[in-house]
From TrEMBL:
One of its GO terms (biological process) is N-acetylneuraminate metabolic process. GO terms for molecular function: N-acylneuraminate cytidylyltransferase activity. Pathway: Amino-sugar metabolism; N-acetylneuraminate metabolism. Belongs to the CMP-NeuNAc synthase family. It is an enzyme of class 2 (transferase). It catalyses: an N-acylneuraminate + CTP = a CMP-N-acyl-beta-neuraminate + diphosphate. InterPro entries: CMP-NeuNAc_synthase, Cytidylyl_trans, HAD-like_sf, HAD_sf, Nucleotide-diphossugar_trans. This is N-acylneuraminate cytidylyltransferase. Its EC number is 2.7.7.43. PANTHER family: HAD SUPERFAMILY MEMBERS CMAS AND KDSC, N-ACYLNEURAMINATE CYTIDYLYLTRANSFERASE. It comes from the Eukaryota. The gene is CMAS.
Length: 450
C-alpha cells in the first residue's frame, strides 16, 4: 500500500490517537568504523543526531523520544536536544550487533512502550510532517509496521563476477525499448530513514511484518550519511531541504557579535608599558564586510571597555562596550531598528551570551565556546573565536537566506527588495514593490530580475 508522499512530550490537546505508548528511538552507538563519533559530528552547524531529534520532538506524536547509546558524549548531546537516554548494554554495542537486538533490549527495559518508531540518526532531512503521517498509519489505520522508501529511476543489470564466463542481463528494462524517465514510474527502495513497528511484532523478531505499509519520502529528503565523502553533499542538502524548526525562517537584517571570544580569540596581551593588545583574523573582517554588502547590519558588544581597540580596527560598526546586560542592549537595538527576533542573528561564546542566543532567530557560537553557550546555539562553528568564526557564521547566514528566498519563490512571494546605489544608478533586484520605484528618478532605473 502506498502511504503518501523534552524527551517526553505531551500530545496535543484533543488528539484522538489510541492510548498505546508510541516512542521514538534513535540508535546512536559510539563506535563507528566509517566516521569516528559520526552521530554527533557537526553537520551544517548541528550535531548529526540533532536534526532527527528536532524533527521527532516537534512532530508532537510521540509520548517519549529516546536515544539508545553507549557513549557519554552522545548522551550529553541527546539530553541537550531534549531526548531521554537509554544506556545500552555492551552486549548490543558491538560491531556485529543488529538494530533489532538493540530495540528488543530497549523494550525489555521499558514495558510502557507499545510502538517503536526507530529513526535513523543518519537521515538529517527528515521532517515532522513525515513522522505525523506515519504515526497516523500505525495508530489510526491499524498497520503493524511502516517503513520509509524513496522512488528511484535507475536501470539494474545482473552482476558478472570476475572469471565467470557469462554476460550481464537487464533486470528491470528492455534494452531494445528503453523508457524515457517521464514514461517510467521507477521503483521503490528502502531508504532507511525510519522503521515503525508494534511491540508484538518486534518481540517475534521482526521490524517489518504483519499488516505492512511503506511511506514514500520525497527524494530531496532522502539523505543517508555513511562515509566522509557524503558529508559536504549532505550539508548542502540539509541547508536546502532540512527542517529548521517550527517557526518559518526569516531574513536576517542584524547580526550582533560578541567581541571577546568571537571577533577575537579572547586573549589580551599586555605590553611592558601596560598597554593592551589583541589579535583578530582578517577573514572575520571580510565576513563583516560581506554582511554589510548584503544589507545586513553588524553590531558589536563587549562586557569590558575596549573602545580604543575598536577605534584602531576601524570596522565602522556600531558597538556597545561595558555592557552589563547584553540581552537588554540587544532588545534596545532590535526595537530601535524595528525588527522581530526572527530577523536578528547573534554570535556569542560565554554564559553572558546565553539569553541572547536563545532569543535570536539565528544563533551561533565558535567551536571553543563554553558548554552552556553551545547548548543554547543553533549553529556551532568549526572555527574557534578569533580564527574565522564570524566569516563562517556569515556564510551560514547567506545559505539560510538562499533557503528563505527559495521558499518564497515556491510560494509565489516576492523576495526582498534590494536597492544598491552605484555610479548614480539604482539597481533594484527582483522588483516586486513598484512603489519603491517612485522614490527614484526614472533615469536612474536599472531593473534586474533574479
Amino acid at each position: 500500500m502506498e502511504a503518501g508522499a523534552g524527551g517526553s512530550r505531551a500530545l496535543p490537546a484533543g488528539d484522538a490517537r489510541p492510548r498505546g505508548h508510541l516512542a521514538a528511538l534513535v540508535l546512536a552507538r559510539g563506535g563507528s568504523k566509517g566516521i569516528p563519533l559520526k552521530n554527533i559530528k557537526l553537520l551544517a552547524g548541528v550535531p548529526l543526531i540533532g536534526w532527527v531529534l528536532r524533527a521527532a520532538l516537534d512532530a508532537g506524536v510521540f509520548h517519549s523520544v529516546w536515544v539508545s547509546t553507549d557513549h557519554d558524549e552522545i548522551e550529553k548531546v541527546a539530553k541537550q536536544f531534549g531526548a531521554q537516554v537509554h544506556r545500552r548494554s555492551p552486549e548490543v554495542s558491538q560491531d556485529s550487533s543488529t538494530s533489532l537486538e538493540t530495540i528488543r533490549e530497549f523494550l525489555n527495559r521499558h514495558h510502557e512502550v507499545d510502538i517503536v518508531g526507530n529513526i535513523q540518526a543518519t537521515s538529517p532531512c527528515l521532517h515532522p510532517s513525515d513522522l505525523i503521517k506515519v504515526a497516523d498509519l500505525i495508530q489510526k489505520e491499524g498497520f503493524d509496521s511502516v517503513f520509509s522508501v524513496v522512488r528511484r529511476h535507475q536501470f539494474r543489470w545482473s552482476e558478472v563476477k570476475k572469471g565467470e564466463n557469462k554476460m550481464t542481463e537487464p533486470q528491470n528494462l528492455n534494452p531494445a525499448k528503453r523508457y524515457r524517465r517521464q514514461d517510467w514510474p521507477g521503483e521503490l527502495y528502502e531508504n532507511g530513514s525510519f522503521y515503525f513497528a508494534k511491540r508484538h511484532l518486534i518481540e517475534k523478531g521482526y521490524l517489518q511484518g504483519g499488516k505492512m505499509a511503506y511511506y514514500e519520502m520525497r527524494a530531496e529528503h532522502s539523505v543517508d550519511i555513511d562515509i566522509d565523502i557524503d558529508w559536504p553533499i549532505a550539508e548542502q542538502r540539509v541547508l536546502s531541504f532540512g527542517y529548521f524548526g517550527k517557526e518559518p525562517l526569516k531574513e536576517v537584517k542584524l547580526l550582533v557579535c560578541s567581541i571577546d571570544g568571537c571577533l577575537t580569540n579572547g586573549r589580551i596581551y599586555v605590553t611592558e608599558d601596560q598597554k593592551e593588545m589583541i589579535s583578530y583574523d582578517y577573514r572575520d573582517i571580510v565576513g563583516i564586510d560581506l554582511l554589510k554588502k548584503r544589507g545586513i547590519q553588524v553590531r558589536l558588544i563587549s562586557e569590558r571597555d575596549c573602545s580604543k581597540t575598536l577605534s584602531a580596527m576601524q570596522l565602522g560598526c556600531v558597538a556597545k562596550v561595558n555592557a552589563t546586560n547584553k540581552l537588554q542592549v540587544l532588545e534596545d537595538w532590535r526595537k530601535d531598528i524595528g525588527l522581530s527576533w526572527k530577523e536578528v542573528a547573534y554570535l556569542g561564546n560565554e554564559e553572558s551570551d546565553v539569553e541572547c542566543l536563545k532569543n535570536a532567530g539565528m544563533s551561533g557560537v565558535p567551536a571553543d565556546a563554553c558548554a552552556v553557550a553551545q547548548k543554547a546555539a543553533g549553529y556551532i562553528c568549526k572555527s574557534n573565536g578569533g580564527c574565522g568564526a564570524i566569516r563562517e557564521f556569515a556564510e551560514h547566514i547567506f545559505l539560510l537566506l538562499e533557503k528563505v528566498n527559495s521558499a518564497r519563490k515556491q510560494m509565489g512571494e516576492p523576495t526582498r527588495l534590494n536597492v544598491v546605489k552605484s555610479a548614480g544608478l539604482a539597481v533594484l533586484a527582483c522588483v516586486a514593490n513598484k512603489a519603491a520605484l517612485k522614490q527614484l528618478p526614472p533615469a536612474n532605473w536599472v531593473l534586474c530580475h533574479q
